[in-house]
Amino acid sequence: MADAKRPNQLLRNLNAKVAAIPMVATALVVFVGCTIWTIVHSFTKSKLLPKTDFVGLDQYERLWKTNKWLISIENLAIYGICSLVLSICIGFFLATLLDQKIRFENTIRTIILYPFALSFVVTGLTWQWILNPDFGVQKIVRSLGWESFAFDPLYNQDIVIYGILIAAIWQGSGLIMVIMLAGLRGIDQEIWKAARVDGIPKWKTYIFIVIPMMRPVFVTALVLITAGIVKVYDLVVAQTNGGPGIASEVPAKYVIESMFKNQNLGQAFAASTMMLVTVLIILVPYAYLEYGGKRRAK
């Protein structure tokens, strides 16, 4: 009986499976193929053009001895952790406020979401002006009488990454808010009524009931934020171009400069491979715990 059912299962939704063949083929050839090609050539001494002169781990040894790469990894770690935490917290907080059925909700939601419609270049240039000490926030506050006020993160090597973070949070929090708001609106109203009848404070209802129920929503938000963190580039270029000095370098910028400016494909491929490994280190354990646990539960 089991063998008889297998052909039927294979023929089920046949049209959809046939229609998906071009997409699957494209993914295999373009994404998987290019990924393998990049990893292979990261072990070569390719310069302006790809070569097959293998040099073992030389490119990786050189990569991890380069101060610019080490600073970019440190910046990405700071930017990534802060961006994840702040985007989730701010987005969820704004969503809870809008979920109270306030007046002019549509207008407020549109205003908060509007920065996400801007490109990172526009956002970066805008915040470059806002954080400029000569005519930005510092200038305005000092004109009001606080002459000793200092706020110039983009010109301070120790905190420049936080200046970039401000712009990223400003642009991305609106999208997270909308995602969280959709999740909150999907919560059955009977749950809220039952919590009120039982005398459970609203904050406890959110923490112990609502947030666990919104786990898929949080996962979606985390995936979107993580994707933006790994590929952050244009925001950094628009605001600081990696400066002051190399204080705000990020891995994506290192890869692009190695490839096009320094014409060192081998080094760029090695850096790209390390970025891929970083993503896999994060995603593989999560996928195993998420989907492996569900299979074991069945």
Automatic annotation (TrEMBL):
Q: How does the entry describe its membrane topology?
A: Multi-pass membrane protein
Report the domain of life of the source organism. Bacteria
Supply the PROSITE patterns for this chain: ABC_TM1, PROKAR_LIPOPROTEIN
Q: In the UniProt record, which is one GO cellular component term?
A: plasma membrane
Where can this protein be found?
Answer: Cell membrane
- The name of this protein is Sugar ABC transporter permease
Q: Where is the ABC transmembrane type-1 domain?
A: 73-286
**Source species:** Halocynthiibacter halioticoli
Q: Name one GO biological process term.
A: transmembrane transport
Q: What high-level taxonomic lineage is stated for the organism? A: Bacteria, Pseudomonadati, Pseudomonadota, Alphaproteobacteria, Rhodobacterales
Q: Which residues cross the membrane?
A: 20-40, 76-98, 110-130, 159-184, 205-230, 268-289
